[in-house]
Specification:
By secondary structure, the protein is of the alpha/beta class. The chain contains four helices and five strands, in the order αββαβαββα.
Amino acid sequence: MTPMEIALEEARAAAARGEVPVGAVVLGPDGAVLARAGNRTEERTDPTAHAEMLALRAAAARRGAPRLPDCDLVVTLEPCPMCAAAASLFRVRRLVFGAYDPKGGGVEHGPRIFDAPGCLHRPEVIGGVRECEAADLLRDFFRALRPARGDPSGARIDGKEGQGAALDPQGGSGPLDPIT
């Protein structure tokens, strides 16, 4: 399996748990998998439990070091600003991601964390790897959360407020749909 295939597997597992389908893998200098994770924000009731954060923390713990300068982070979706900043703080060598995220991304979109004057470390960035497959996972996940077209109630299917809730009752882009 390629690293992106492993990340996509983690994303599928996250979706099966009701989490936004994002997966991440941290590779050591020899290409071996140090850590892998999928989103767990709902399960852990922790808004910072993004796949990237979990994988980076696990890789650093496994190595017994706070920095990962010879490691690569592979993730299915362009990291949000928090995760992009974490990749910089962990000093990853390379960031590889699948789908671009025009609404919530922090690398090629939004605040472009690595281009900020205060950014202390800028990893090599490679975007668009298996982009269509990663985008389809997200699109399908959010489509399933939306109420059927024509349902004026806009009812939530999970009964929760917050992530995955209160999506557009007309089936348009919901507030959490990172891919249009």
